[in-house]
């Protein structure tokens, strides 16, 4: 009897606790709703920050969707980034409401600020709502040919996201071919992103990524000027390439050797992997000995790194 009474009291306490928490959440959301619709810009800005903070810790703020959307029409890049983050988070659960933001996305994709153009096209690609595809095609096409390399490199990665969402539409619109054309871009960031995007799409459909001899030279030039992750993407792509002859293999190996001196362990290990794979194409014993001699010191240095890196190096 006593155990039953204790269990009943515990159950009641749990119900009371749930009601209190629900009331607190409701009260906080009501307060945020009021602030999001305030006539004062700073109060609306602070409210958006609080909404994102609550969302980050797992609180449900989906009920504020329309109120957050009202604040999209702003020139404040920080607030726009936060609102776009909110939209990405709730796009799958509120697909119908996301469509309401399409006009703003399309408008932002033509903004004079390249950061806003890139942000708009990146967010549209990350929404993963199939209905958005109809509205995304024209802005994406424009951004792929944008005069600013930052916008172009963002658009290239957006194609990979869209390919995951609607493969047929991506190919019909010629976006995959546009990414292949980006391998010849004058900017190394765009080239690195194009390699990464094509390899990502190739994981879902064979034949998307095909590295040709005329492209290898561009990649070898781009690898020296790319950021770390870009270098890794290019080196991984080159390691899968089959050289036409021994001379080409030797040339590729010699041009990537400086990457062994890179401060980033991942770049070093990817370079080592490439050199080891190319040993099957290089027959000169003296050259192979030279490669081995240059690979050893950076590998020994990596043994002073974290255990996971030590394991790979060993």
TrEMBL record:
GO biological process terms, semicolon-separated: intracellular protein transport; vesicle-mediated transport
Location relative to the cell: Endomembrane system
Keyword field: Membrane, Protein transport, Transport
Keyword Repeat: no
Origin: domain of life: Eukaryota
SUPFAM superfamilies: ARM repeat
Pfam families cross-referenced by the UniProt entry: Adaptin_N
Predominant subcellular localization, coarse grouping: membrane
GO terms under cellular component: endomembrane system; membrane coat
InterPro entries referenced in this protein's UniProt entry, alphabetically: AP_beta, ARM-like, ARM-type_fold, Clathrin/coatomer_adapt-like_N
Span of domain Clathrin/coatomer adaptor adaptin-like N-terminal: 26-314
Family stated for the protein in its record: Belongs to the adaptor complexes large subunit family.
Protein name as it appears in the record: Beta-adaptin
Organism encoding this protein: Coemansia guatemalensis
Gene it is expressed from: APL2_1
């Amino acid at each position: 009897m006593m155990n039953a009474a204790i269990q009943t009291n515990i159950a009641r306490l749990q119900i009371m606790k749930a009601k209190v928490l629900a009331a607190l959440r409701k009260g906080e959301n009501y307060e945020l709703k009021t602030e999001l619709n305030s006539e004062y810009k700073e109060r609306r800005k602070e409210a958006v920050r609080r909404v994102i903070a609550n969302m980050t810790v797992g609180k449900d703020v989906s009920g504020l969707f329309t109120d957050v959307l009202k604040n999209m029409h702003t020139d404040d890049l920080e607030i726009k980034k936060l609102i776009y983050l909110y939209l990405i988070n709730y796009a799958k659960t509120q697909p119908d409401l996301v469509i309401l933001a399409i006009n703003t996305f399309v408008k932002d994709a033509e903004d004079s600020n390249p950061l806003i153009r890139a942000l708009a096209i990146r967010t549209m690609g990350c929404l993963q709502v199939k209905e958005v595809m109809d509205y995304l095609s024209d802005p994406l096409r424009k951004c792929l040919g944008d005069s600013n390399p930052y916008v172009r490199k963002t658009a290239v990665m957006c194609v990979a996201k869209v390919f995951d969402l609607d493969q047929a539409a991506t190919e019909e619109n010629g976006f995959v071919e546009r990414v292949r054309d980006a391998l010849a871009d004058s900017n190394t960031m765009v080239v690195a992103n194009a390699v990464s995007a094509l390899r990502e799409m190739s994981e879902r459909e064979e034949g998307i990524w095909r590295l040709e001899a005329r492209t290898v030279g561009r990649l070898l030039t781009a690898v020296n000027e790319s950021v770390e992750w870009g270098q890794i993407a290019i080196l991984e792509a080159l390691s899968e390439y089959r050289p036409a002859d021994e001379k080409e293999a030797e040339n590729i190996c010699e041009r990537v050797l400086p990457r062994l001196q890179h401060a980033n362990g991942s770049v070093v290990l990817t370079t080592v992997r490439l050199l080891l794979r190319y040993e099957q194409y290089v027959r000169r014993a003296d050259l192979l000995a030279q490669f081995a001699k240059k690979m050893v010191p950076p590998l020994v240095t990596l043994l002073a790194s974290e255990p996971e890196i030590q394991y790979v190096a060993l």
